[in-house]
Specification:
Distance between the termini: 54 Å
Number of strands: 9
CATH topology of the largest domain: Rossmann fold
CATH class of the largest domain: Alpha Beta
Shape: elongated
CATH architecture of the largest domain: 3-Layer(aba) Sandwich
Number of helices: 11
Strand order of the largest sheet: 5-4-3-6-7-9-8
Number of domains: 2
Length: about 300
């Protein structure tokens, strides 16, 4: 633990600079959306104080109260000494410009599918205007389900997860966006509790981390629920089940879109006879795939 005299720290500017220095000298990694320690330090300090990010310049020279100092220093220690992710400390994370509540019950939202939603899937969907029923499988915090509801105002969205804890977080976000009448949280082990329900579009950002990879991940990932990360020796166990069961839950002309991180090679080895369309994202050309109902194998 880095020992330093914090008495000279007075203003928000001071604490952001101090937090930046602490992050640089810590073992923290920056794989949860921040570009650099400066950006993360500003977010951590400002949101600890509940100051909107757009007001940063206005408040930089404001002096902290005693209680504020204690809270900010404690949160800096949690991040730099305990390596707890900032999103869990502040209970907040942003995805494509939308804020979401998060805590340790859910994975910190990070998804290339969110990029595709923002860009209307680059015109790759057969007819977006005809999409009236959507499923977000493995919804976690519900962020993708909410982004889909924003982008497809004519559609209803089922937000499915095996974890009741995760769905409690999703319910918070659904209520925050006032989508209770369009986004429906459902507890289910994949399609187990969906009976004969069918959808025009199914998206999924399922667990896809290999067991070996999980062992080598930075400490920050240990705070996240392993149920939402690990999927067997090759990371394909959940995707395997998904592909076997999904066809019965797609309407005619329905589409499945799945994110699998760096698992493209494992996917091709596990499913050599399944032809998919890879959708380019900022993460590369093989992080997300799309497959139409007629291309899927029968169960």
């Amino acid at each position: 633990m880095m020992e330093t005299n914090t008495e000279p720290l007075k203003t928000i500017r001071d604490f952001i600079r101090y937090c930046t220095t602490r992050l640089y000298s810590s073992e923290a990694t920056f794989n949860h959306g921040y570009q650099n320690p400066e950006e993360e330090a500003a977010f951590l300090v400002l949101r600890t104080l509940r100051i909107p990010l757009e007001y940063e310049e206005k408040f930089l020279d404001a002096t902290l109260t005693g209680n504020e100092r204690e809270t900010v220093l404690n949160n800096i220690s949690r991040r730099c000494d305990d390596l707890e992710p900032t999103a869990y400390i502040t209970k907040e994370w942003w995805l494509t410009g939308f804020p979401f509540y998060v805590d340790e019950r859910v994975l910190i939202p990070r998804s290339y599918i969110a990029e595709l939603i923002e860009k209307n899937f680059d015109g790759l969907l057969p007819d977006p205007a005809r999409i009236h029923s959507i499923l977000d499988m493995c919804t976690g915090s519900g962020c993708l389900a909410i982004l889909l509801a924003e982008k497809f105002p004519q559609a209803e969205v089922d937000a499915v997860d095996i974890s009741s804890d995760a769905l409690e977080v999703a319910e918070i976000n659904i209520a925050d966006y006032e989508f209770e009448n369009r986004v429906y949280p459902i507890q289910s082990d994949l399609f187990e509790n969906l009976q004969n329900t069918k959808y025009d579009l199914i998206i999924s950002n399922p667990p896809y981390v290999t067991e070996a990879s999980m062992e080598g991940l930075p400490q920050e990932y240990r705070y996240e629920p392993s149920l939402a990360l690990v999927a067997g020796a090759d990371g394909m166990d959940i995707i395997d089940r998904l592909l076997k069961e999904v066809k019965a839950h797609l309407n005619d002309n329905g589409v499945l879109i799945v994110e699998l991180g760096d698992g493209a090679e494992n996917f091709k080895e596990r499913f050599p006879n399944i032809e998919v369309t890879w959708l380019p994202t900022s993460g590369g050309k093989d992080q997300v795939f799309m497959i139409k109902k007629e291309q899927l194998p029968d169960a």
